[in-house]
């Protein structure tokens, strides 16, 4: 296979294009939330807590697919910002439960605004119908791949 044919074949794959665009989108989102004093992983933790119920650090690690020590570090930083609260689980005093505070909800809303602005930058060359279709297809792919 020639280099030209190999490169063209690579550029024709969904996984390659998603990887390239994913890295670009991630960098753009990271730059925007950095202005809020956080990183994308902080935003992911805030989003995971948004359902209103308290969650243990272990449960959150499993849900987000990360090691528990990362949740502890992220929660420490978010607690310093007043975005999350830690409380002991009344059923198991060894477990720490995390809840989103009013400040955490405000920070999450600002993260959503940052993501929407990054979306607008990334998809600016698409029509509204193309953006809607892209979002729908990406959600479908994500739902098929992520554990339930």
Could you explain how this protein is built, in words?
The chain is mostly helical and 148 residues long. It has a single domain, classed as Winged helix-like DNA-binding domain superfamily/Winged helix DNA-binding domain (Arc Repressor Mutant, subunit A), CATH 1.10.10.10. Helix content is 67%, strand content 11%. The chain contains seven helices and three strands. The protein has a three-stranded antiparallel sheet with strand order 1-3-2. The longest helix has 21 residues. It is elongated, with a radius of gyration of 19 Å. The N and C termini lie far apart (40 Å).
Topology:
Layout: H1 3-11, H2 14-34, H3 40-48, E1 55-56, H4 57-64, H5 68-80, E2 84-89, E3 92-100, H6 102-122, H7 128-145
Antiparallel strand pairs: 1-3, 2-3
Helix pairs in contact: 2-6, 4-5
Features:
single chain, 148 residues, Arc Repressor Mutant, subunit A, elongated
Compose a concise summary of this entry.
With 148 residues, the chain is mainly alpha-helical. It has 7 helices and 3 strands.
Kindly estimate the percentage of residues that lie in beta strands according to DSSP: 5-15%
Shape: elongated
Helix content: 55-70%
From the helix content, strand content and strand pairing, which structural class follows? Answer: mainly alpha
**Overall domain count:** 1
Radius of gyration: 19 Å
> Uncertain runs with pLDDT below 50, 5 residues or more?
none
Which CATH top level class fits? Mainly Alpha
The largest sheet has its strands arranged as: 1-3-2
CATH homologous superfamily title: Winged helix-like DNA-binding domain superfamily/Winged helix DNA-binding domain
CATH fold category name: Arc Repressor Mutant, subunit A
Which H/E pattern describes the elements? Answer: HHHEHHEEHH
- Main sheet specs: 3 strands, antiparallel
Please report the number of helical segments.
Answer: 7
Q: Total strand count, please?
A: 3
Span of the ends, CA to CA = 40 Å
Supply the CATH architecture: Orthogonal Bundle
Mean pLDDT: 91
